[in-house]
Amino acid sequence: MALNSTERFTSRVADYVRYRPDYPVALVEWLQRELHVPAHATVADIGAGTGISCKLFLDAGHPVIAVEPNAAMRTAAEDWLGDDERFAAVAGTAEATTLPDASVDLVTCAQAFHWFDQQAIKPEWRRVLRPGGLAVVFWNSRRLTGTPFLEGYEQLLLDYGLDYSSVAERYNDDASMAAWFDGGLRGSARFDHTQPLDFDALRGRLLSSSYAPQEGHPQHAPMLAALRTLFDTTSVDGTVGFDYDTRVFAGTLGTGDITGTHA
Fold first, then answer.
1. DSSP β-ladder status, 185-197 and 240-251
2. Could you report how far apart the first and last alpha carbons of the chain are, in Å?
3. Residue 190 belongs to what domain range?
C-alpha cells in the first residue's frame, strides 16, 4: 500500500538528516533585501521535516516554529536545533498548524509544498499570519540534464524508482504559483545550488528518497550496483555534483492585505 505524505519518510529519517541538501543563503538575503523582511520576523516553517529549512532561517536571525506531523522527523529537528532558544517544534499539519491566530510574520514551506492540497492550506496560513505577513514557498529542483551524472541519475530513478514517475518533480511552474497567490505575489527568484557528494553520501541521498526501494526489496541491490557504476564513470576527484535550481515565491494570501508592513 502506498504511504501517505505524512508517513512515507518515517523509515528514511537518518538518511534524510545526513544527506538531503540545504538551501542557498542567498534566498534569505533576497527576502530581507528585496522584500524588506526583518531578521526578527517570526517564521512558521510548515512541513519542516528534520529542520533543514528551519536552520536556514535560524542562521539568518529569525525565530522559527517548525510545524511537522511526522514524529520521527520532528524529533530529529528537535535533536538538531533544540538547543537554540529561538527554535520550537509543534505537531501540526499544513491545514491545522495548532498555532494561534495572527501569530507569525512568515509562513514558509520548502520541499513539502508539492505534497499538500494547495488550496486547502490557504485559509489556515491566512489565519496564522499577521496583517501584511508573507507566505514564502521554495524548493530545490534537481536538474535532470546538463552533465553525464545528472542524466544517468535520472535514468537510474526511472529504471528502479518504485513510484518515481508519479511523485517526482511535481513542482509548480511560475504561472501556477502566481495564480496560487491570487494577485498577492510580491516577488520570485531563482538561485543556483550544488550539493557535492562522495559515493557514501550519494548512496544516502538516494536512499533518503521516498521512491527508492529499501533493503529487502528485490530492486534494492541492483539499484545500488547501478549507482556504483554511475558514480565510477562520472565522478571527478571523488565526487559528483547534484545541481539544483532553487526557486522561491513570496507574497500575501488574504484579500485586502496590508502591504508595506515589513518596510
1. antiparallel
2. 49
3. 10-251
Q: Are 105 and 262 in contact (CB under 8 A)?
A: yes
Q: Is 260 left (phi over 0), alpha (psi -120 to 50) or beta?
A: left
CATH number of the domain enclosing 188: 3.40.50.150
Packed helices 25-34 and 52-59: angle between N→C axes, nearest 10 degrees: 50
Phi first, then psi: give them for residue 250, nearest 5 degrees: -140, 140
Q: Does residue 256 lie within any of the structural domains?
A: no
| Cα–Cα dist 201/17, whole Å | 11
Query: For residue 137, what are the β-bridge partners?
Result: 109, 249
Q: Is 69 helix (H, G, I), strand (E, B) or coil?
A: coil
Q: Please write the tens of the pLDDT for every residue from 50-86.
A: 999 999 999 999 999 999 999 989 999 999 999 999 9
Please give the model's pTM, rounded to 2 decimal places: 0.84
